[in-house]
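wait is this the right file?? whatever heres the structure
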């Protein structure tokens, strides 16, 4: 049936037609409804088809009266360069890297969509990758046979890898973008505490239990290597050779030098027989204000001073008053007067003032 005319055949016929009426005639005297079904079958927009595939119709003023209003949206192209091809080539094989658009001498503008080209490139790359996997598998078998003939056995037979260059950079970029999306999703889920690390390994990255264990061991090894490089850079010490760390916060807090136990711990570990020399609680030196101090319990005499100046019965009488009482007991007898030179001088001074 006419409505099943393929797109390429329809375009070839339309290039020489100046109206739909002429196109209908060349398709077998079909009517307009049948032509519309042809467009629907090939998923073609009628207006787009006129401006891109019917150059003679664009010059037909009577035909273009109904479609002139669409003309502006098809006049947004600028001629960058003109290349003359020496041989005849199919327009589907022409690729314009930068602009992805080109026009034929008939005035037909053809668009090579970058997205379409990228999709074609990826499909081609996937096809080539499948073929490469088959080739690598067969070459690996040949390599194993070759190594066996050469005298290699056991693990040495498979101790090699073969690889072929990927045919598409776009395919590589898509794979990188996919990995970026996966890592971003995993990081976000870990930060939000939604799932465990094991769940992410299995469901996002598709790791098996053995692969998870293997990657965990490698991550620990990476941390060790990172610490080793930091020690070499900052302290000039290689922990892999010296067997010790230097300058870490724990070393600084403990005041370790890294040589405290050199030659003292045997292969079985622990302390040597009899213990380390000087081990145990250190002897305490004399403390100020204690009996063991060089100046005794009361180096400043604070207690005696307090005792001497106090009238409390706890300490008895003050020291000076105690001596005075003893003097009074021995010197003050009946009819005995204590000579006081200051009183005599005062009396003589008063007599002189009265005379």
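ok assuming it is, sequence goes like this
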């Amino acid at each position: 049936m006419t409505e099943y005319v393929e797109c390429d055949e329809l375009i070839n016929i339309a290039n020489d037609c100046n109206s739909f009426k002429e196109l209908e005639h060349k398709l077998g005297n079909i009517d307009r409804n049948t032509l519309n079904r042809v467009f629907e079958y090939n998923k073609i927009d009628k207006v787009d088809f006129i401006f891109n595939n019917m150059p003679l119709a664009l010059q037909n003023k009577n035909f273009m009266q109904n479609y002139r209003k669409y003309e502006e949206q098809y006049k947004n192209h600028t001629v960058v360069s003109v290349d003359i091809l020496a041989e005849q080539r199919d327009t589907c094989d022409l690729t314009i890297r930068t602009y992805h658009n080109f026009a034929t001498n008939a005035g037909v503008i053809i668009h090579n969509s970058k997205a379409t080209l990228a999709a074609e490139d990826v499909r081609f790359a996937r096809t080539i990758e499948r073929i490469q996997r088959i080739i690598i598998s067969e070459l690996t078998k040949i390599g194993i046979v070759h190594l066996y003939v050469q005298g290699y056995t056991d693990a040495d037979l498979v101790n090699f890898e073969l690889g072929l260059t990927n045919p598409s950079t776009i395919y590589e970029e898509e794979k990188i973008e996919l990995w970026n999306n996966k890592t971003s999703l995993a990081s976000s889920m870990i930060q939000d505490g939604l799932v465990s690390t094991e769940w992410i390994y299995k469901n996002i990255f598709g790791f098996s239990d053995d692969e998870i264990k293997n990657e965990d061991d490698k991550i620990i090894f990476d941390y060790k290597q990172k610490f080793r490089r930091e020690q070499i850079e900052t302290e000039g010490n290689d922990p892999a050779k010296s067997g010790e760390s230097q300058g870490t916060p724990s070393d600084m807090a403990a005041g370790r030098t890294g040589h405290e136990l050199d030659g003292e711990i045997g292969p079985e570990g622990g302390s040597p027989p009899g213990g380390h020399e000087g081990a145990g609680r250190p002897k305490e030196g004399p403390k100020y204000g204690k009996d063991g101090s060089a100046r005794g319990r009361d180096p400043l005499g604070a207690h005696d001073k307090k005792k001497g100046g106090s009238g409390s019965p706890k300490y008895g009488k003050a020291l000076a008053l105690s001596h005075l009482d003893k003097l009074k007991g021995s010197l003050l007898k009946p009819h005995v007067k204590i000579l006081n030179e200051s009183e005599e001088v005062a009396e003589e001074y008063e007599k002189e003032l009265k005379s």
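The longest helix spans residues 114-149. so i think its the right one actually
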